[in-house]
Design a protein that fits this description.
mainly alpha, two-stranded parallel ribbon, 21 helices, 66% helix
Length: 474
């Protein structure tokens, strides 16, 4: 029955990709909220489930493995995907935009104007942000210590101190360079010149950000903005590239995780041998595929089997709902304004790590995500999973209405990219509070920079491409 469940999950995903939302030209862009969720399911549910079926056991939640539990988890995931597809397609039919409305939107867009000069502010934000990044690296011990911090284990082994709260705040502020580089790359794609130079600047800027933070998620928004800009201004990225996009996503994840694990070890002189890691079996690729990166299916099982224990940690389902979906929004209030602000904001993933005995619930340092499938089950059981995934489908359909319009601008691309990033985090993390923290709070510098540049440019003008015809990437 487990194999049948995986087959059903595969069929649902295939059907979903074939029914992906269309843009105004009738093409199916790969960069839609709908496809982002389906890609997330492929990477964090289908792939791990297939690996578990091959291994015959769990890697990180071994006490929660049995054939029956795994089978139940697979079928719960399939049910969640079916609910997502139903909610999305139902909402899509109800909210379809007719051709007359599209044309009126286009005509309105043609009359808008834009301010041509934002160059001084653009370069100012870029330079200030880059200087701040380099200064932080130098004054926190140089590149060697910054690279060592990428891995908490290697950092502790080497005795390197972590960044203090003030330095972390400055890292966030330095995101103005990321936003400026992103805007410059987006503008160059629209204007049809200087794209290679700006993409190089963006690459260097994001590399410095990664060295400072070790978090791949903070570079997700700039990358998404540029990819959507390429789709709008240069060449359509449709679902035809999915056979390439999924392996590329896995490869990028592998490279960035390897950099965070093996590079600090090399710098610190620590011998990290995958032969000494049981689940790696001497293979770097297996080390990645069976890492916590793809442990979501196991955590869904923990959520289903330890549901009552986890809810008891929060004081019941209602307290768990409020504590993890709404309280974390208070994280954005500066401590200078609220001196008594709590030092810990909880997520349901903290309950899962506590159930596994990884960290004490009272002092969580890490959380293992169970995706929206697992978190909604924690709150409402099977019915909760159905409702949660159905609502995610409705939300994705509302966001993807943007694809049917013709008045793309740099500003609307940024907003749409932010929506896609938020949907990705909402599915993967499964709670509103942590989605807000990861999507918005950790990107304050990036968003501030992009907002300033949008306002100065009076965004809202219609998009136009250097070429009269638009080619489709096959």
């Amino acid at each position: 029955m487990t194999v049948l469940g995986l087959a059903m999950l595969t069929v649902l995903l295939t059907f979903g990709f074939l029914q992906a939302p269309q843009d105004k030209d009738g093409a199916r862009p790969v960069l839609s909220a709908f496809n982002v969720v389906l890609l997330g399911i492929c990477l964090y549910v289908l792939l791990p489930a297939t690996l578990i079926l091959n291994a015959g056991t769990y890697t990180w939640a071994t006490d929660y493995y049995s054939g029956e539990i795994f089978e139940k988890t697979v079928w719960l995931s399939a049910l969640g995907v079916a609910a997502f597809l139903y909610g999305n397609m139902l909402s899509r039919r109800q909210n379809a935009i007719d051709d007359t409305e599209l044309k009126s939107t286009h005509d309105a867009g043609q009359s808008m104007s834009s301010r041509p000069s934002t160059g001084a502010v653009l370069y100012g934000l870029l330079v200030v942000g880059l200087v701040l990044k380099v200064a932080l690296i130098v004054y926190s011990g140089g590149f060697a210590q910054s690279i060592t911090r990428l891995s908490d284990g290697v950092r502790q082994f080497s005795g390197v101190e972590s960044l203090d709260a003030g330095a972390i705040l400055l890292v966030t502020v330095s995101g103005i360079a990321d936003g400026a580089a992103t805007w410059g790359a987006l503008r160059s794609l629209r204007q049809g010149r200087g794209a290679k130079a700006w993409l190089f600047v963006l690459l260097i800027t994001l590399a410095l950000t990664y060295v400072l933070t070790g978090k791949r998620l903070v570079i997700l928004l700039p990358i998404t903005v540029v990819l959507i800009g390429f789709h709008v201004y240069r060449r359509s990225l449709t679902t035809r590239i999915l056979p390439i996009a999924i392996p590329v996503a896995i490869a990028v994840g592998f490279l960035t995780l390897s950099a965070r694990v093996f590079l600090p070890a090399a710098v610190a002189g620590y011998n990290l041998d995958v032969n000494n890691i049981a689940y790696a079996d001497g293979s770097v690729l297996q080390f990645y595929l069976y890492s916590l990166e793809f442990a979501s299916v196991e955590m869904i099982s923990v959520a289903t089997e330890a549901r009552h224990d986890i809810l008891d940690m929060f004081g019941g389902a209602w307290n768990a709902l409020v504590t993890t979906n709404f309280d974390p929004f208070l994280y954005s209030v500066p401590r200078a304004v609220w001196p008594d602000k709590p030092t810990v904001f909880y997520d349901l993933s903290h309950g899962i790590t506590a159930a596994l005995g990884v960290t004490p619930f009272e002092d969580p340092t890490v959380g293992y995500a169970s995706t929206l499938i697992g978190t909604s089950f924690l709150i409402g059981g099977t019915v909760g999973t159905v409702i949660g995934m159905l609502l995610l489908g409705v939300l994705a359909a509302r966001i993807d209405l943007r694809l049917r319009r013709v008045d793309w601008s740099d500003g609307s691309i940024v907003i749409y990219a932010l929506a896609l990033v938020a949907v990705f985090h909402l599915f993967r993390q499964g709670t509103l509070g942590w989605t807000f923290i990861v999507s918005i709070v950790q990107n304050y510098g990036v968003l501030l920079s992009l907002l300033v540049l949008c306002v100065l440019a009076k965004e809202g003008h219609p998009s136009h491409r250097p070429n009269s015809s638009r080619s489709v990437n096959s």
